[in-house]
Amino acid sequence: MEYKLIATTTFGLEGITAKELKSLGYENLRTENGKVHFEGDEMDIAIANIHLRTADRILINMGEFNAVTFEELYQGTKKINWSEIIPKDGIMHVNGKSVKSTLYSVPDCQSIVKKAIVDSMSASYGIKEFEESGPLYKIEVSILKDKVTLTIDTSGPGLHKRGYREEAGIAPLKETLAAAMVLISRWKEDFILIDPFCGSGTILIEAAMIMQNIAPGLCRTFTCETWPTFDEEIFEQVREGAERAIKNKNIKLLGYDIDGKVLKVARSNAEKAGVAKYIDFHKRDFMEFSSSERYGFVISNPPYGERLGDKKEVEELYRRFGEYKGKYRSWDFNILTSFEGFEKPFGRKASKNRKLYNGKLKCYYYQYFDNELIKNEGNMLINYI
User: Fold this and answer.
1) Dihedral angle, C-alpha 55, 79, 136, 230, nearest 10 °
2) Over the range 95-131, which residues count as b (16 or more CB within 10 Å of their CB) and which as e?
3) CB 248, CB 212: distance < 8 Å
4) How is the beta sheet containing 3-9 ordered, strand by strand?
5) Is 198 within 8 Å of 295 (Cβ atoms)?
6) Which residues of 79-93 are buried (b: 16+ CB within 10 A; e: fewer)?
7) Do residues 48 and 61 make contact, with C-beta atoms less than 8 angstroms apart?
8) Which residues 6+ apart lie within 8 Å of 4 measured at CB?
9) What whole-number distance in Å separates Cα of residue 263 and Cα of residue 299?
10) Cβ count within 10 A of residue 141
11) In whole angstroms, what is the distance from residue 118 CA to residue 314 CA?
């Protein structure tokens, strides 16, 4: 069955997710804030859930229409053939949100949508009561400027939950954002990659998984796998294909942190992700940063105001970061921070920067490129910018 699908993303990552979908062979993509629209069948839903690194969820777009009254909301919802996907015993859990719309009461909208779905199902199945004892169908009614979008979530837990990170540091970086940071950078396996504030190792683990082509959703399950409309062989086939596509490149990744306990967590996470042999974690102070490599990459989410609580301490740390960039001129530095005015203590303007969100926290991703590296190695580098 063909579906209209939506890959939801954190604001700022829509273009990255669209490029991922294109690399998987999908065309006719449409992007908007926090969403990438595409089309596909059950196999495509499995592929997107297992392979996308920067998407939050994969939704089935059941219908879109305008509504400024509860009657219009009810009738528009009822017209949809929900029984094509939801069985008689399906659990229908409705969530909602409304932004700049006439219908602003979310609880009322959820209640009306649920009633309309049940009435639609009653007409299809010829029954009036539903036990809702079977698989879960998480339905969302989203109303933006009076436009209603009704979706069913196929993913279950967010796609950032790869299954390898049971524990994290004080200020955890979402796996999807960490993957985006690596994809946006120009790092390739030919160059050393260092995270001098590695914490629980998320950036380095995601980098290793990208370079070795390990599908991020390979070791987890998805809610649509419990649906009777999905043949279990579909996900088996996609997982088998993903396993065959795994590579074993010779890569060098280093992670430093001054906290020995968090490094134990990082090593454990890397082990669970299947990339421990590619990453060396060391207890090391950032003030002792050094390398003999001519070319290299730094990708990091260093401490900032919310984490250290001392503006002067943070500025001193960023000033030292700038000194390292001056010393290692042929290196690329990629730094994510929410600290306002980062470039001033760093001592130089970034080659590029973009606004990204880590959860609800607004951050900026500052990238400092090396022109010699661009000139000499440009044909080897992946550019997701």
Assistant:
1) -70
2) ebebeebebeeeeebbebbbebbbebbeeeeeeeebe
3) yes
4) 30-32, 35-40, 3-9, 55-66, 147-153, 136-144, 91-99
5) no
6) ebebbebbeeebebe
7) no
8) 37, 39, 60, 61
9) 17
10) 26
11) 55
Per-residue pLDDT 10s for the chain (385 aa) are 999 999 999 999 999 999 999 999 999 999 999 999 999 999 999 999 999 999 999 999 999 999 999 999 999 999 999 999 999 999 999 999 999 999 999 999 999 999 999 999 999 999 999 999 999 999 999 999 999 999 999 999 999 999 998 755 555 799 999 999 999 999 999 999 999 999 999 999 999 999 999 999 999 999 999 999 999 899 999 999 999 999 999 999 999 999 999 999 999 999 999 999 999 999 999 988 999 999 999 999 998 755 545 778 888 999 999 999 999 999 999 999 998 889 999 999 999 999 999 888 899 999 999 755 444 444 434 344 3
Instruction: Give the up-direction half-sphere exposure of residue 373: CA atoms within 13 A in the CB hemisphere.
Output: 21
Contact 60/31 with Cβ under 8 angstroms?
no
Task: Show the tokens assigned to 9.
Answer: 């993303």
The CA-based angle 29-385-44, given to 5 degrees, is: 30
Q: Are 104 and 98 in contact (CB under 8 A)?
A: yes
By C-alpha distance, which of 31, 10, 15 is closest to 363? 10
Strand partners, 40: 3
The distance from CA 212 to its chain's CA centroid, rounded to whole angstroms, is 18
d(CA 55, CA 145): 24
* C-alpha pair distances (Å), 116 with each of 71, 73, 74, 75, 122: 10, 9, 5, 7, 10
Reference 245, options 219, 218, 271, 225; nearest CA is 218
- d(CA 311, CA 339) in angstroms, rounded, equals 9
Q: Taking each helix axis as running N to C, give the angle between helix 14-23 and helix 175-184, from 0 to 180 degrees, rounded to the nearest 10.
A: 80
The residues pairing with 83 across neighbouring beta strands, listed in sequence order, are: none
The 3-state DSSP class for residue 39 equals strand
> Which residues, listed in sequence order, are joined to residue 114 by a DSSP beta bridge?
none
Whether the CB-CB separation of 142 and 149 falls below 8 Å is answered with yes
